[in-house]
Design a protein that fits this description.
mainly alpha
Amino acid sequence: FNQSIANALNEYFNLRNAFADGDTVKIKAQVPKFNASVDSIKLDDLKKDDSLILASVQQQVSDIKANADDILLQKDITEMREDFRMVSENLYPFLRTIAYEGPKLYWQNCPTAFGQDKEGSWLSNSSEIINPYLGKNHPECGELKDSLQ
């Protein structure tokens, strides 16, 4: 189970990096890899723990994949980034629900990711700010909001 989570997170970080690079070709190539890794998460392992948790996690996984699929439908990188924001907004509570136990993760936020009044958050495997919404040209926009370990 933990290895399948680690694989999905690695694909998520590859997707986040493609957004930080502003590379729509890499983004669209990475989405199917990310979704395949999410599909391979061994949710059945949760059945023996708690059926309520399993139902919640299954919904979160469905939302994560739906938002990732929406990225593929977009032509504009800003719209793609909006969908990535939703992937992140669903992935973070998913990790909290399953009581993530892997290497430390950082929940980071840019308060002006989509203009003055719209923030965007994302997960990172380092405390370094790699902003997927404004790209590598704006590393100054980002702050640590939480961490998981």
